[in-house]
Design goal:
The complex is a heterotetramer of chains A (420), B (317), C (252) and D (289). Chain A has 420 residues and is of the alpha/beta class. Chain A contains 16 helices and 14 strands. In chain A, strand 9, helix 10 and strand 10 form a beta-alpha-beta unit. Chain D is 73% helix and 0% strand. Classes of the chains: A alpha/beta (420), B mainly alpha (317), C alpha/beta (252), D mainly alpha (289).
């Protein structure tokens, strides 16, 4: 039931059931407005549940839900029950994301805002939450500006900056696979900053850039760029593509046999992407932001088991962890400070260390004062086409501490201004 | 005479509702910035309907001009000069120029073909916004600017700080735009547009140069849609390539049809229903797209004349 | 000086020659009918004159000006107006609005975004006059699409008249009508022609209408000019009898 | 550099062939029924997902044969139940209906198969390059082109030689006459719609082998198909084919010099065509007005 293409059991009955479920349960739902009691502490999640990022957003939501259940079991926030309100920001329409942020803040009066997977939305909703003075934890938007040039006093981030990702992996690439690199870079801020990060490393180590192809976001056919990469004859081809672009580019690179001639590598990689690739395309050196198979780290096993229960038996990915950590952060800091005042909480979060049962990482994990960036461990390793366990598609070779990979606060461009 | 009286009552009612919307929308589950969104999108749908409902020409690419307005205001404030009114004017000006050029290329096409070509041309602007990272911010959208207070010389009005102030700012511009469109539709020029909608061949043989009039109607429609686009960007403090995409155009069309294409206020009603419904359903279920899709299908099959058409038929019977 | 001069026009559709070297001269004030059996090329000939189609060869002169390639809208400006075989009106507008549009176009107001009160009054008066002349005053407020066939036709003719044409082209104005309606429309056309010495070219199927109205008749058959003359001459013409009237008489 | 351009011309032809496959289906439906099928990308996704679910049971080749047919059957049903009601009405309505349908299909596939990218596996021998110099000519791509050529060939054969095909072509030119001649137009349109959707389904199976399988897989592919139709000429199927190939090559070549314009270029092409030759390269006269 857990794997194989027919795991969804598409037969007549389940289609009918599905139709009935869509038709009845969900038609009925809109007209039964659940009473949103005033005495609950509300956490709003503004994340994509439809479109390209739907899977990532949904996984983050599952992580949030697990955290809320646990928090409520342990007495909630300030003794009050916690409620998670989630809104679909869509994957591409930032206007909708902003609107939903307004909705959560203005109408539902949430105490905390979480989200977004999409960097642009993370930035845009950060503006809204800052204006409304609501503590905001960015779950999964990686662009550096969130905790860099566009940082806000109320905005914290649990996922890494792109620079942390490139710094963590570049030494290994350089030492083990060669010093001539070619970049396949998606043409938007995320890709650009990743490439800049790698270029900085190259400069430091004295390597050369064989070239770079800027690929439009949403490219379906990568062959022109792969042809160019092949012609440049590098040691390593670095794929900075994410999500659907990563699936398409890697799938095609393998079909062209590039993996047999060059080493394939990149920065951020996600379990969701590896699962979407055919076995022969699960290759290369990457960075994971969290990984479920950490036998020696306490509490991870319990977390994996708990997520499996909520997730059709599938293991948690970094996205689940993002949702889980950001939700727990709200509870931990509010209970520690005994207040919901955003300014006080934000000040207390500077330098706040996550307890190991939440951090789920071997090293100390803390929010850095100054830019509000979480400093987690990074998992450098390589993709595995077929693991011992079906979902074990990544092998961790080295764990890099976030504090070692991140730029110092002074170089991030972040200057937090606190409200008067 | 009775119908004129009815119309005046309807007008008064609509303006009364619009003027008080921020105060009652909370009771129906909304919030002030949702009210602004309704008015902005209503302006877009009514502008589209100037072409669709009153000239009989189907554009499925109006989002492009909406988006040009949005980027126009954002880029002006970000790169050119810190002035909201200037930004609005630039946004509308650029959209007008684009519409004028595209218009000359397409006025000879009709019905489905016109729709198809407007979609395709709309995508050009979408791709410019989406791909030209250095200038438009690409997929990340155009951020790093914000709505600036209006400077009246004697004092400043901060339209961005309070959702309520912004709502009335939007409503004021809405009133001006809608007023101009209403006057145009009652003018001899407006009547030639109706003539084209009703019977293009007849119009041509009455001595109306049909292409020229369609081009002008297209231009007017695009300019007002771009005004809506500038307001939308000011509402979000953000311009987004998605604003220019064809599915956004589809939303405008469905708003017009839902409310009633033959009616001046129809698209306003359609926009209100659509925006509130979408806001509501998308909070209730992740499968909101199915409902919106189904909604499209049901409207087409059962309410092709829209809410106003339905009301009129009831009133007539 | 003749008002309309058609010189040797032809129109081909692929291998089919719909109109073959037809010439015609219409004098000011004349009422000319064009008749011919089905498929004789009457409507194509008409479309060439009104600018709906371009001729393959030949020339068309209106008021001594070459209008062969002039667009329909511009021919209207020169003083040509036409009606269609299938009534072409604005069905979802009132009769008043139907007439008001051509009145305003004729007054050169079509691009005006606003109208002065005096202008509006002048337009109203002109519309009232047209309504009255056609007997449609009582139906002015109704939607044109809801009128009877005959009234719709009258509306269409008045829309053409509203343009103050010097030449009125009527394409089978009584097609598909009952006797009473045919009579009413015929009377209206006759009245308009008489009242303002209007030059008219009429295509017609119904011989009663033709003989009742026309000064001169021209017969087309298989795209070619078969005969031309007064109604009486045509009625007496053997070739015409053979090609057209004979067949008509038999079926009638 | 010349080699690079040459590579990309080839490559553009491959992609263009794919666009053409989509566009031909769209074009057939547009010509006979006057419907712009916005849901065409949705049907492509259905074809791809069906193939994915069928592969474990009947293999890639079985899925390639069966999935498009199943998709076509769904298409036939959709036409019967929904689209048929809109013939003869303002084209606005069919546009909106298929637009809504596209939403429903995207969401439906997400509901049934989940939002995650699914791994679609093709036979190993297809998934490797044919030669190391022309490494971009993978077996799969060559196979795709061959299949598109065969399909297009068969389509034109059907249209020119069979009774159904001849009626479809005649109906596209002049529906009134065809119906007067006693052809059942309802059935004709139904079958024609099915045929168009079959092509979308086939394109879906092919796309799944090259791209990640996601509910939005068809969204990026439908617009180039529109452009292919306009460039090639409204009403002309050979034109559509030509249009597809041309825009494929144009975007392939642009990607060498100016990647971020590789999509915009096809719209610029369309603008030029409309400016210089409004009815499209092989379009029929009179379709424009």
């Amino acid at each position: 039931m857990t794997d194989g293409p027919f795991s969804m059991k598409i037969n007549r009955r389940s289609v009918l059931k599905a139709a009935a479920a869509v038709g009845v349960a969900q038609v009925a739902a809109p007209f039964v407005i659940s009473a949103r009691a005033a005495d609950k502490v509300k956490i709003g999640l503004d994340d994509p549940f439809t479109g390209t990022y739907a899977e990532l957003g949904k996984n983050e939501k599952i992580g949030c839900e697990l955290a809320v259940e646990e928090i409520n079991k342990k007495g909630g926030i300030l003794g009050r029950e916690v409620e998670l309100l989630s809104e679909d920001s869509t994957s591409t329409n930032t206007g909708t994301a902003v609107q939903k942020a307004h909705k959560l803040i203005d109408r539902d009066k949430v105490d905390f805002l979480l989200g977004n997977v999409n960097s642009a939305m993370a930035l845009a909703t950060g503006e809204v939450s800052a204006q409304a003075k609501v503590l905001h934890i960015v779950t999964g938007g990686h662009t550096d500006a969130v905790t860099g040039t566009d940082c806000h006093w109320n905005v914290f981030r649990v996922c890494n900056t792109t620079r942390m990702e490139t710094n963590s992996v570049s030494q290994i690439l350089f030492n083990e696979f060669g010093k001539k690199w070619y970049f396949i870079t998606p043409d938007y801020a995320f890709g650009h900053t990743l490439q800049q990060g790698f270029e900085a490393s190259l400069k430091k180590f004295g390597g050369t850039e064989a070239g770079a192809s800027l690929t439009p976001l949403g490219t379906t056919d990568f062959s022109s760029y792969l042809i160019k990469a092949q012609a440049a004859n590098p040691d390593v081809i670095i794929f900075l593509t994410a999500g659907q672009d990563a699936v398409n580019s890697l799938k095609q690179a393998v079909q062209f046999g590039l993996d047999k001639k060059f080493h394939i590598a990149g920065a951020q990689q996600e379990l969701e992407v590896l699962e979407g690739l055919p076995e022969n395309a699960r290759i290369g050196t990457w960075v994971f932001e969290w990984y479920w198979n950490q036998p020696n780290v306490p509490h991870v096993k319990e977390f994996v088991a708990a997520i499996r229960k909520k997730n059709n038996g599938k293991v948690p990915t970094a996205r689940h962890w993002f949702g889980y950590v950001s939700t727990w952060t709200c509870a931990l800091i509010a209970n520690q400070e005994k207040t919901l005042d955003a300014v006080k909480l934000a000040k207390a979060l500077e330098g706040f260390t996550l307890p190991p049962e939440i951090a789920l990482m071997p090293d100390k994990v803390a929010y850095r004062a100054g830019d509000h960036q979480l400093m987690p461990d990074l998992y450098v390793g390589h993709a595995v086409s077929k693991g011992a366990v079906p979902e074990d598609l990544f092998h961790v070779d080295k764990i890099v501490k976030g504090t070692d990979a991140a730029l110092p606060v002074s170089e991030t461009g972040c200057k937090v201004t606190w409200p008067a | 005479m009775n119908s004129t009286l009815n119309r005046q009552i309807a007008n008064a009612l609509i303006w009364a509702l619009l003027l008080t919307m921020p105060y009652w929308i909370g009771f129906v589950g909304g919030y002030t910035s949702l009210a602004s969104r309704v008015v902005v999108l209503a302006l877009a749908a009514m502008s589209l309907n100037f072409l669709l409902g009153f000239t009989g020409v189907l554009s499925f690419g109006h989002a492009a001009y909406f988006g040009i307005g949005a980027y126009g205001v954002g880029m002006t404030i970000k790169y050119l000069a810190p002035s909201t009114p200037l930004g609005i004017l630039v946004g509308m000006g650029v959209a007008a120029a684009a519409a004028a050029i595209i218009g000359t290329l397409i006025v000879r096409l009709r019905s489905v073909y016109f729709a198809m070509v407007t979609i395709a041309f709309g995508q050009v602007f979408y791709f410019i916004a989406y791909r030209w990272n250095a200038v438009t911010g690409g997929d990340d959208g155009l951020s790093g600017w914000r709505t600036l207070p209006l400077d009246f010389g004697i004092g400043k009005l901060d339209i961005a700080g309070q959702p309520l102030t912004f709502y009335y700012f939007v409503l004021a511009l809405f009133a001006v735009a809608v007023g101009i469109m209403a006057l145009l539709l009652r003018s001899p020029f407006g009547r030639t547009l109706l003539a084209i909608r009703e019977n293009e061949r007849r119009a041509r043989f009455l001595g109306i140069p049909v292409e020229q009039h369609i081009w002008m109607s297209w231009l007017i429609s695009c300019v007002f849609v771009s005004l809506a686009g500038t307001l939308y960007a000011l509402l979000n403090n953000f311009a987004d390539p998605h604003d220019l995409r064809w599915d956004q155009s589809g939303d405008f069309v469905i708003m017009a049809v839902l409310g009633g294409m033959r009616s001046f206020w129809g698209p306003l009603i359609g926009a209100a229903i659509f925006v509130v419904l979408q806001d509501y359903i998308s909070s209730q279920t992740e499968n909101w797209m199915s409902f919106i899709g189904l909604f499209f299908v049901l409207i087409v099959l059962f309410f092709p004349r829209g809410v106003v058409g339905l009301l009129r038929r009831k009133a007539a019977s | 000086m003749s008002l309309l001069k058609v010189e040797q026009v032809s129109r081909r559709f692929g291998s089919l020659v719909a109109v073959d070297q037809v010439s015609m001269t219409v004098e000011p004030g004349e009422f000319r009918a064009v008749i011919g059996p089905n498929g004789a090329g009457k409507t194509t000939f008409f479309n060439l004159i009104s600018g709906f189609l371009l001729p393959t060869s030949g020339r068309i002169l209106f008021d001594d000006q070459d209008v062969t390639a002039v667009k329909p809208a511009n021919r209207v400006k020169l003083g040509m107006a036409r009606t269609f075989q299938v009534t072409e009106i604005f069905p979802e507008l009132s009769v008043r609005e139907n007439l008001r549009i051509p009145v305003e176009v004729a007054a050169g107001h079509r691009l005006k975004p606003w109208q002065s009160r005096a202008d509006a009054r002048a337009m109203d008066e002109r519309v009232d006059e047209l309504l009255q002349r056609s007997g449609l005053t009582g139906k002015a407020g109704r939607l044109a699409g809801e009128l009877s066939h005959g009234d719709q036709r009258a509306t269409e003719i008045m829309m053409a008249i509203a343009l103050n044409p010097r030449l009125l082209l009527l394409d089978e104005p009584t097609a598909g009508m009952g006797d009473q309606e045919t009579y009413d429309v015929t009377q209206l056309i006759r009245k308009l022609h008489r009242e303002q010495k209007l030059t008219v070219v009429l295509i017609e199927h119904d011989m009663r209408v033709v003989f009742h109205l026309a000064d001169r008749v021209m017969v087309l058959a298989e795209g070619q000019l078969l005969a031309e003359g007064t109604p009486d001459e045509i009625a007496a013409d053997d070739a015409v009898q053979e090609a057209y009237l004979g067949a008509e008489a038999e079926t009638a | 550099m010349t080699q690079l351009i040459l590579f990309n011309v080839f490559n553009g032809l491959i992609i263009g062939a794919f666009y053409a496959l989509m566009a031909l289906g769209l074009s057939m439906i547009l010509n006979l029924s006057g419907v712009i099928n916005f849901a065409h990308g949705g049907f492509l996704a259905i074809g791809a997902y069906l193939a994915y679910s069928l592969t474990p049971y009947i293999g890639f080749w079985g899925a390639l044969a069966v999935a498009p047919i199943l998709t076509a059957i769904i298409g036939l049903l959709v036409e019967r139940v929904l689209i048929r009601r809109l013939y003869g009405r303002d084209p606005l309505y069919s546009l909106l209906l298929t637009f809504g349908l596209a939403f429903m299909i995207e969401d439906g596939t997400r509901y049934l198969w989940g939002p995650e990218t699914l791994p679609f596996t093709i036979p190993d021998w297809l998934a490797s390059p044919l030669s190391s110099d022309f490494f971009f000519l993978t077996g799969y791509r060559v196979f795709m082109v061959v299949l598109v050529l065969v399909t297009v060939g068969a389509l034109f054969l059907v249209l020119n030689r069979t009774r159904l095909g001849i009626r479809i072509r005649a109906g596209s030119d002049d529906l009134e006459t065809v119906s007067v001649l006693g052809v059942n137009v309802r059935i004709l349109r139904n079958l024609n719609f099915g045929l168009g959707i079959y092509l979308a389904g086939l394109a879906g199976v092919l796309a799944a082998g090259m791209l990640g399988l996601q509910p939005t897989i068809g969204n990026e592919l439908i617009m180039p198909s529109f452009v292919a139709i306009i460039v090639g000429g409204l009403g002309s199927l050979p034109g559509t084919l030509l249009g597809g190939l041309l825009i494929g090559v144009a975007s392939g070549v642009t990607a060498v010099f100016f990647p971020s314009a590789s999509e915009a270029v096809i719209y610029v092409m369309m603008g030029l065509v409309l400016l210089i030759r409004p009815r499209g390269l092989l379009g029929e006269e009179g379709r424009v007005l």
